[in-house]
Amino acid sequence: MKPLAILGGTFDPVHIGHLNAAWEAAELLDAEVRLMPANVPPHRPPPVASAEQRVAMLRAALQGQSRLSLDTRELQREGPSYTVDTLVELRAEQGDRPLVLLLGEDAFAGLPSWHRWHELFELAHMGVLTRPGVEPTWPAGLAEAISGRLTTDPQGIRATHAGRVVLMPITPLEISATRVRELLAAGQQPRYLLPVELLDSPTLLAPYRR
Ligand code: ATP
Fold it and tell me: GO MF terms on file (predicted)?
């Protein structure tokens, strides 16, 4: 059974950095990857675009391929979307299928501040997106929690449904939604930072233009 991997985020807006990370992870893991927009991210200021607008951009960006898909469950839930609740739900649905929570290296380093973070390892594998050729370093508490779980073999995680931390080097693309929003607010056209479907739409990027 192909693993199911999840890339969560605000996607305000979705950009080429997100799409490439999800795509390369799908290839390394030979997995189905779902992009999962968050409703009220617990650690962050509210998004500029509404949930409906962010979903519309994701739908447009994902058209024409079937490897990456969209999962809007966190938007349907009231209140903050805690990853642990989402993984409990997915685990109940997916049985013994390997689940992989994809996280950028920075997000992973902040894991000890997440709600019920120790439980995450019981529910899913973690796929940490790293920079090729750079050995990642973690804060002490986290390094201790993951020693014995670390692997660099994305295919090897299929042997179990959860609990490994797989380091996955992907092509580094220094694109952030913050930068994209700044460019759009300044009246510019960040054509090659965004999926072309967003740039060519007359309405999808309206929330960011001044
Ligand atoms: P913002 O600039 O608004 O903080 P962002 O561009 O970092 O947004 P998020 O929606 O917060 O985007 O990111 C969702 C997930 O995608 C996170 O796990 C993040 O680490 C990852 N991600 C974001 N940008 C990139 C990128 N350029 N390359 C690889 N992964 C990325």
Answer: ATP binding; nicotinate-nucleotide adenylyltransferase activity
